[in-house]
Design a protein that fits this description.
alpha/beta, 6-stranded parallel beta sheet, 9 helices, 6 strands, 45% helix, globular, binds 6-O-phosphono-beta-D-glucopyranose
Length: 219
């Protein structure tokens, strides 16, 4: 019996994954580091400094901490410019329906995002009130694939990990959900998200009520 569902934000609820990609690509290429969609997959779900370190490593660069912080700030400024004009129209298809279905099914609804911009994005999308609790990078020590963020969300929602469903678009995110002992729904490519219990191409058309029913008959 599931009592809570915990959503990732970027790439699940809204396509900010695209904006992170564009902002990192601009920074990386400015540093002479090649950047494409395949490499970007490794950054999905990874926090800001962790993502920057992967880019620098790829380019064989090792700047001092103050320069790394400056580069991370530059990327974040670009990213914030890209997301500044977002509205509810930027919700991914099926996202709002999934949030509403979760409520209708009596589940607690949480957000687990390593983005320090998560609160701003929820506000821009006008969906803050759909969440009983939000856990972002400011509340955790270890990013995904560590389970800390999902376990913290479960605790805040008062749900046992085994009674939680996690929803993710990143491989490290699915890993975090599974390490937390939760059921994982992957949104995206089944080859990349192979560790998930169920992979859907998008939340569009995903019938949460039917999924819960199916899971209940399996247990
Ligand atoms: C994750 C994204 O949700 O947040 C990553 O998948 C991003 O791509 C990370 O780097 C950190 O986001 P922010 O907004 O704190 O730079
Ligand atoms: Mg994501």
């Amino acid at each position: 019996m599931f009592t809570a569902i915990i959503f990732d934000l970027d790439g699940v609820i809204t396509d900010t994954a695209r904006y992170h990609y564009l902002a990192w690509k601009r920074l990386a290429e400015g540093l002479g580091v090649p950047f494409d969609e395949a490499f970007n997959e490794q950054l999905k779900g990874v926090d800001r400094m962790g993502s920057l370190d992967l880019i620098l490593k790829r380019g064989g660069l090792d700047p001092a901490l103050d320069e790394r912080l400056r580069l991370a700030d530059r990327k974040n400024d670009d990213y914030r410019q890209l997301v500044a004009t977002m509205t509810r129209a930027d919700l991914l298809p099926g996202a709002l329906n999934a949030l509403e279905s979760a409520r209708a099914a009596g589940l607690k609804v949480g957000l687990a995002s390593v983005s320090k911009n998560a609160g701003t994005i929820l506000e821009r999308l006008g969906i803050t009130t759909y969440f009983d609790d939000v856990v972002d990078a400011n509340l955790i020590k270890r990013g995904k694939p560590d389970p800390e963020i999902f376990l913290t969300a479960a605790q805040k929602l008062g749900a046992a990990p085994a009674a939680c469903i996690g929803v993710e678009d990143a491989a490290v995110g699915v890993q975090a959900i599974k390490s937390a002992g939760m059921l994982a729904i992957g949104v995206g490519d089944p080859v990349i998200l192979g560790q998930a219990d169920r992979v859907v191409p998008s939340l569009d058309g995903f019938d949460l009520a039917a999924f819960l029913k199916e899971m209940a008959t399996r247990r």
